[in-house]
Amino acid sequence: MSALDPSYHWPPETNMSQRCPYCHDRDIETVATIPYVRGRVVAHTLGVRKFMGCRRCVRRAIYKEVGVSSLIGWFSVTAVVLNPMMITYGAVRGLFVRSDEAGVKRALEQAGIPDDGAEADPLRVAYGLAAAMIAADGKVEDEEVAVTLEVGRQLFVDFVADDFFKVLANHKDLPGVSELAFLLGGILEDQEKALVFGYLAEIAASDGHVADEEKLMLEEVRTKLGISESATLSFARGQLPPAV
């Protein structure tokens, strides 16, 4: 039965693993946020990268982002001015990655994932993914919010706009899109994974342009959800994967 069917409801709330989304070995220990800038000759994009995982992996993720900024963060006048400060901040932040139980708890709660082993609400996690995707480029666009509501109501019979807005209002406390996708991938069947991915793709394209950062993020989400490229293409053609 498809989630597009009016009689469809999400399965009962399901336990999620709280293993590090990067190494899948150690527990989630900390969260970190660093700013970035990307120049495009006459324009630039400001945003933040959010990381949640074990301390070792979060530190590596920060330094990886610093490396990317060092290579491609320069191609506008504004970026040339801002990028050195952001690279320096990221490099210093990586030195001081410590356990942050309060930050992890706050991020998980905002995403609808209890940190005490209790059951999680898959739809609340979907709200978190959508909110994180909307805010991924550093700003919340009205067009993206409108599409999120419209498509959300079509895909999820239990979608509640007020609940989504509560999550969106606190998007700065959410884990990163990649981490949320990893957690969500552990509780959904292939059909639901394809629906969620299609949901995010619609949001990204709602302003008429999918930025390079959004394309990379969508690919990372696809990988973290554990869905194949063929399943993604099938969804794009309006063909859901067969139910299992």
UniProtKB/TrEMBL annotation:
SUPFAM superfamilies associated with the record: TerB-like
Keyword Membrane: yes
InterPro entries reported for this sequence: DjlA_N, TerB-like
UniProt keyword Phosphoprotein present: no
Keywords in alphabetical order: Membrane, Transmembrane
Pfam families noted in UniProt: TerB
Protein known as: Transmembrane prediction
